[in-house]
Design a protein that fits this description.
Length: 175
């Protein structure tokens, strides 16, 4: 599977869009602004410098994720290893909750060097929490990522698509 190159693409540092990464404030809107800018650019690197970035799901009917990507491509979500943490903010959430949800038509998305913290001791959820849900998206790659403290899976695959974790393909089987 071909991976997006980071050598000649634009970088979108989430801190330049207002994220603090201090583990106190809600960084959801700032991270969304960085993602929107990368999408408008037709791709790029959304960079998370070392820090703890708190994110929350909007409390609205039908909302399942913090960041939902549909029919976009060529994005890299890049951190500096476990020092770059995306953490679910303390609170109560209804229904399934994914930090990232990659929907049909989404291709060539990479997650590199990020830590995902489900914060299960400080949230109340009536369903599962997942860091990444891949729903019929294709050419998705995750490497050097850490998944911890969650009610659900680090990566949940629903439907079909090509997914690699650490260079190895993952296969989703229909039951």
């Amino acid at each position: 599977m071909a991976q997006p190159s980071t050598a000649s693409v634009e970088w979108f540092n989430v801190k330049n869009f207002g994220a603090t990464g201090d583990g106190n404030g809600d960084d959801t809107k700032s991270i969304q602004a960085a993602i929107d800018a990368a999408i408008a650019n037709k791709g790029g690197v959304v960079y998370f410098p070392p820090g703890t970035y708190l994110v929350a799901k909007r409390d609205a009917p039908g909302v399942l994720s913090t960041f939902s990507l549909s029919k976009v491509s060529n994005l890299v979500f890049l951190g500096d290893g476990p020092a770059s943490t995306i953490k679910i903010k303390d609170g109560t959430y209804r229904g399934d909750f994914m930090i990232f949800r990659l929907l049909a038509g989404t291709t060539r998305i990479s997650f590199l060097g990020l830590r995902f913290d489900g914060n299960k001791n400080n949230i109340s959820a009536d369903e599962h929490t997942h860091a990444i849900e891949i729903f019929d998206a294709d050419e998705i790659h995750a490497e050097r990522c850490w998944f911890e403290d969650s009610f659900g899976d680090g990566i949940q695959i629903v439907g079909k698509g090509a997914v690699q974790v650490g260079g190895e393909p993952l296969v989703s089987y229909e039951m």
